[in-house]
Design brief:
There is one protein chain. By secondary structure, the chain is an alpha/beta fold. It contains 13 helices and 14 strands. It has two domains: about 150 residues, Alpha-Beta Complex (Aspartate Aminotransferase, domain 1), CATH 3.90.1150; about 240 residues, Type I PLP-dependent aspartate aminotransferase-like (Major domain) (Aspartate Aminotransferase, domain 2, 3-Layer(aba) Sandwich), CATH 3.40.640. The strands form four sheets. A seven-stranded mixed β-sheet has the order 2-8-7-6-5-3-4, sandwiched between helices. The protein has a three-stranded antiparallel β-sheet with strand order 9-12-11. A two-stranded parallel ribbon has the order 1-10. α3 packs antiparallel against α10. It binds pyridoxal-5'-phosphate (PLP). The site of pyridoxal-5'-phosphate has 13 residues, from α5. Pyridoxal-5'-phosphate binds next to α5.
Length: about 400
């Protein structure tokens, strides 16, 4: 078939593919532990469910304005005021069917063929593919070995006359790192001085631990919003445990939001009316679920870090946010695809290879499941890697052999 050459090069999402495989194994009755998942297990807020139900029952489920219904954009404005101390107008907000399409629209709005988009490793799997899908060239900046924050000098060296945007995701998927105020402040100044967009992917911004906050780029620009180069991407998926609801948004200068809205108009028309009602319910409703999710994740993080510490040679950087950890397994295998495949086949534990995030030799381990899953999953990893552990064990009905 005459599929487009560029389209053919776009990789499938490794995390979504892993989910499919994990679900398949579970459906076959295997005692799989899924430590690769990217979504909180808690229920969506009741206010979201009631709002969506009321909307459905009203039967008034029609097209909405492309950038989203005004009450939802106003709720996003209130959210931006509360969390970022920034007052914006409805023209600075576009609601989309998730943070992912909001990001895609932002890149499509600014990238010309051959333009470069810079982002640090480890990065979210979709950034390189999205940049290439809009005709751009991804430029990855690796951190120093053993660290998850890039050096200023390395970022600056990666920025050229072709750089259209820098993407920063903090708290970071997959490392759980929260970038320092210094780095973000410096980058805001640099991007605005050099007329480069700074896309802040803030999808995990409320999921932070140990009293830390994720510094916001908006705090470091004194330009009026319509002259700022900062674009903040956010959504209800992670913080409100609403991944399947598919609502996200972008906040930025009117000029770029307008172009993004045109792109959305010609591609999806608008996000679902029903799910916009749900997101409005979540934003305006009881917020206690966010705090209880954060506290649960922090406890799970502690359990995971403690369990991983029992595997000799595995280097763990304690995550400051999100629900991911990116331990370094190079003491066992520098090839994360092989290691992750081995753990899935031999120990029925799903992890995501660090290679997919630009961090070879590491595995992304999620702690959004139950404590039982975290403890059992890491114990299985330890069994599979420890040359002194019993060679054969039963996992569920399967006899597993540790054949490294
Ligand atoms: C860093 C990052 N940005 C964006 C998204 C996408 O969020 P949404 O579900 O709102 O599209 C994810 C989801 O995994 C993510 O990890």
């Amino acid at each position: 078939m005459r599929i487009g050459t560029l389209a053919r090069t776009i990789a499938e999402s490794p995390t979504l593919a892993l989910n499919d495989k994990a679900n398949q194994l579970k459906a076959q009755g295997e005692a799989l532990i899924h430590l690769g998942s990217g979504e909180p297990k808690s229920m969506a807020p009741i206010d979201a469910i009631l709002a969506a139900s009321a909307k459905l029952v009203s039967a008034d489920v029609k097209y909405t304005p492309t950038a989203g219904i005004l009450p939802l954009r106003k709720a996003v404005i209130a959210y931006t005021e509360q969390h970022y101390g920034r007052t914006v107008s409805p023209k600075n907000v576009m609601v989309a069917a998730g943070a992912k399409p909001a990001l895609y629209a932002a890149l499509a709005a600014m990238v010309d063929p051959g333009d470069e988009v810079v982002f640090p490793a480890p990065y979210w799997v979709s950034y390189p593919e999205m940049v290439r899908m809009v005709g751009g060239r991804p430029v990855v900046v690796a951190p120093p070995d053993g660290a998850f924050e890039p050096l200023r000098g390395d970022l600056e060296a990666a920025i050229t006359d072709r750089t259209k945007a820098v993407i920063l995701n903090s708290p970071n998927n997959p490392s759980g790192a929260v970038y320092s105020r210094d780095l973000i402040a410096w980058l805001v100044e640099l991007c605005e001085r050099r007329d480069i967009f700074l896309i802040m992917d803030d999808i995990y911004h409320q999921l932070v631990f140990d009293g830390c906050t994720a510094p916001s780029a908006f705090a470091f620009t004194d330009r009026p919003i319509d002259e700022s180069r900062v674009i903040v991407i956010n959504g209800v998926s992670k913080v409100y445990a609403m991944t399947g609801f598919r609502i996200g948004w972008a906040v930025g200068a009117r000029e770029v939001i307008e172009v993004m809205t045109n792109i959305q108009a010609q591609s999806t028309s608008c996000p679902s009316a029903l799910l916009q009602a749900a997101a409005l319910g979540a934003l305006q409703g009881d917020q206690s679920g966010v705090e209880s999710l954060r506290l649960t994740l922090m406890t799970h993080r502690d359990v995971l870090v403690r369990e991983l510490a029992a595997i000799p040679g595995v280097r763990v950087t304690v995550p400051k946010g999100t629900f991911y950890c990116l331990p370094d397994f190079r003491a066992y295998d520098g090839d994360s695809m092989r290691l992750s495949g081995f753990l899935l086949d031999r120990a029925l534990v799903a992890t995501v290879p660090g290679k997919d995030f630009g961090m070879e030799g590491h595995l992304r381990i999620s702690y959004c499941g139950s404590v039982r899953e975290i403890v059992e999953g890491v114990r299985r990893i330890r069994w599979a890697l420890d040359p002194d552990s019993p060679r054969d064990i039963h996992i569920g009905d399967r006899l597993c052999t540790r054949d490294w």
